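Now for today's protein.

===
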Amino acid sequence: MDEPIATQRRLGRGMIALAWIAALGVLWLFFEDSLERRAHPNRDLQVAPGASELVLQRNRAGHYVAPGTINGQPVVFLLDTGATQVSVPAHLGAQLGLAPGAPMQVMTANGAVTARATVIDELGLGPFRAVRVRGHLNPGFRDDQVLLGMSVLKHLEFTQRGDTLILRPQAR
């Protein structure tokens, strides 16, 4: 075979392979974003200044997750009416400025766990702020979601319609 033709064929095959790799990369990025939106539909939540309610969409697993803050640091909350307190993954404690306190037993879906008591100086969820919130650092959590329990949720009024949850300050 003629050497220039063989070189052109190799170059052509290389270009085709690169095109396929690029196409697969674009598809991967598209589907990764699509899956993330289904798992966390509220990730780009915008709250208007002065708003008095927060509207959340349920994710594909049937949960309500929302961006928020603990001591000014961004977190993702999983609203959990079955949790008594705010349960923070222990590996996030230092990053969020949370001091581990006394050991305490907590019941989780996976059984009893020894967690460390903590106090959250400031917690933000949409237009809502809470200060000096009791919580705990849970060593059993491997992901970064923070369970937002009733120590905060008891101050809010819930209205659920289909896959939408509306949170408002509790009427006094």
